[in-house]
From TrEMBL:
Membrane topology classification: Multi-pass membrane protein
Organism: Paraburkholderia hiiakae
Designated name of the protein: YjbE family integral membrane protein
Tagged with keyword Membrane: yes
Family: Belongs to the TerC family.
Keywords on record: Membrane, Transmembrane, Transmembrane helix
Regions that span the bilayer: 12-35, 47-67, 138-157, 169-189, 204-224
Pfam families referenced in this protein's UniProt entry, alphabetically: TerC (PF03741)
Cellular localization per UniProt: Membrane
Major subcellular site: membrane
Transmembrane helix is among the record's keywords: yes
């Protein structure tokens, strides 16, 4: 255990925690919706067991993702997906939670949380698998579990505080989107299919690609956010 913490890649841990907090807001909404009709004495149990099931399922999904990233072109594909996730973080689409029905039974609420989290956690899975790439291969799964164990409770019990901080300091979202772009750039250039091009296998090329990914996400996401805001303003007067 001491050796694990001594050799732990703390940069990757921080990235995983930041990713989960930024991308986990909808998961907190799902938990609240699923448990809202439970008797008050069962709500905490529903939250605890539903969250535990969601964490276990996500660890399994991420474990598969970490292994699969060694297959040629999957890192490249995951990197492209992560670029889009970062852009969407800055310019979110209107997410609907109407299909998440409140449950009046404890087991039903737990199942709702686990199933909905599995459906919604693709972005988290790809992003966390990418962040874990920087760590020692022997510690990647343990690192993922450690990061999730720290971040999920923050989302569940501190979601309101996190949302207020994100609203008050929008730069946090921008920095988080840039982080996703940075990780995406690293995934793309480190794809096993690129091993045949020695020019790409240099620290300078990797750093440049990471920077390019971060700049791309922030630039495109900011432009889409401004465009969506202009469209909203144009449609506002027409709706009255």
């Amino acid at each position: 255990m001491l050796e694990f913490f001594a050799t732990l890649h703390w940069g990757a841990v921080i990235q995983i925690i930041v990713i989960d907090i930024l991308l986990g807001g909808d998961n907190a909404v799902v938990i609240a919706l699923a448990c809202r009709d439970l008797p008050s004495q069962q709500r905490m149990r529903g939250i605890l067991w539903g969250t535990a099931g969601a964490i276990a399922l996500r660890v399994v999904l991420i474990a598969f993702a970490v292994v699969l990233l060694n297959v040629p072109f999957l890192k490249f594909t995951g990197g492209l997906l992560l670029l889009w996730i970062g852009v969407r973080l800055l310019a979110p689409s209107h997410l609907e939670h109407a299909n998440v029905k409140p449950a009046d039974k404890l087991i039903g609420a737990i199942k709702t949380i686990i199933v909905a989290d599995a459906v919604m956690s693709l972005d988290n899975v790809v992003a966390i698998a990418g962040a874990a790439e920087a760590a020692d291969p022997r510690h990647r799964i343990a690192l993922v579990i450690f990061g999730l164990m720290v971040s999920i409770p923050l989302i569940v019990w501190g979601s309101q505080l996190v949302l207020k901080l994100l609203d008050r300091y929008p730069v946090i979202v921008t920095l988080g989107a840039a982080l996703l772009g940075w990780i995406a750039g690293g995934l793309i250039i480190n794809d096993p299919a690129g091993d045949r091009w020695p020019l790409l296998d240099t620290p300078l090329a990797e750093y440049g690609m990471c920077v390019a990914g971060a700049v791309f996400v922030v630039a495109l996401g900011s432009w889409l956010r401004r465009r969506n805001a202009r469209r909203g303003e144009a449609q506002g007067p027409q709706s009255h």
